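Handout, section 4.2: multi-component inputs.
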Amino acid sequence: MTMQTTTHKRADILARDEFALWYQADAASERMVSFAQKAKRLAVHLFVASHLVAIAFWCVPVDSPLIPLCRDLVRPYFLWAGLFQSWDMFAPIPKGANAYIEATLRYQDGSQKTWTFPRMEQMSRKEKLFKERYRKFADYLQRDELDELLPDAARHIARLNSSPGHPVRTVILVRRISFIVPRGNGVYVPEPWDSHILLGYGVRPEDLK
Amino acid sequence: MSLRSLVKFWNEFFFAEQSPVPIALFRILYGILVIATLVLLHSDWLDWYGVDGWLSLPTASRLEPGHRLNLFTVIPQSNAWVEAVFWAVLASSVLLMLGLFTRMNSIVVFVFLTSLHQRNLYITHGGDTFLRLAGFFLIFAPAGAALSLDRMIRIRRGIESPSVQARSPWAQRMIQLQLSFLYLVTFLSKIKGAPWLQGTALFYIYHLDEFRRFPLPGWFFRPAVLKLGSWSALALEFSLGVLIWVKEFRYILLALGLLFHLWLEYSLNIPLFQWDILSAYILFIDGDDLVDSLSGVRRRVFGALSAFRSNPALKHRKSGQPPFRWLRYR
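Output:
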């Protein structure tokens, strides 16, 4: 009888201990879960707040010495992740001139040809949909700070206009420009076209391969 | 305003659960727009991104230095791989639109889109930039929580209940904020320029031959109309950047914004730009209002059909159940 009671007591104690252990483990795992949830929530709050501030500093066009400092801070991350942005279409001053690019091509046999970069105003409505990227690219080609784009463009034009027996030897990229000048009564009369040479490029045989 | 009320506002604004239907609809529109962008680019794909295209990879890297998420720097330098990128991003966009493996495909589409922009930044317009930025936050959004194949599969397997579960909208809010930043920054940039303040800006814009699209009426070119147009654009951009957050103004501003972008779509040739921006308007519409509008459209469509024959799809209306019950989360 005494032995049976002792065994029961032991089983009781064991069961209690097991329950206590299980309860402790459950409480610990619950604590872990709630800790993980809290950490996740905190991370989301930090993510949201930091991105909001960073985006605001990146794109707000306000003159303050703080802005460039903050931009420099977030620049590596923004450039890597593709979060860089600028919203300045037609701003602060809309483009004040119609312009396009022409290429004068001289071939090895001495012949010459003028090739015009795709121009939106000469395309059908359907073509405009598919070729609009040329407008954007031509816009960048004309910017002084991006003149590194020009040799690549000249090489591509040479490739487009060469054949094995008739290679292009020189490409001269010319910008044609006509300013938009409002007359007194708001009438628009197109100004004459002006020309500026952007680049003269001597095509090498390896450019055409 | 106390710190406590600020914290409360923050928590409610970003984390109070709401219907995921608007972000799911945005996901569908986003997928369609990425597909449309790719289709328009396809005929000149190798010219823009190819090995012997308009811009070589070394020149692009020199002009835009720094570590950048750009798959083109990792893949072998051959046109076959560049073509493969097109088909990969197209396939992933279709799956994202359908909502199959939504999270994975939102990541894949974002990485590819960013890579395309990094490879040739000089052909992208503001609409492309907005798609890229929205794509980043879409990764974190519950974009597959409604109107998706993922959800259909989860319901079939009994993992999810048929009624839509409310979700935390913080990623959706970030896309909304990104849109209002877009308008506000455009407004702030424009008021720095004299032509916008003087009201002559539109004169220049509408005389740029390269943007011309459909014919415009003669009266539009009158100085007074152009002046009014320039100032109205400024006022609307400011309102869409700031006042859109005031609930009472929201829907009227969205309607005005829609008209504004439709006018630009008609008058200027910037393919997809207006639609890229307009797609995010859906995020400003309350989930229940969206479902109500969908129900209205459905009612009208089936109402017209039922005039010819009795339609079994209208049975639920007769039984008194609201349509699109499966999209309602309350």
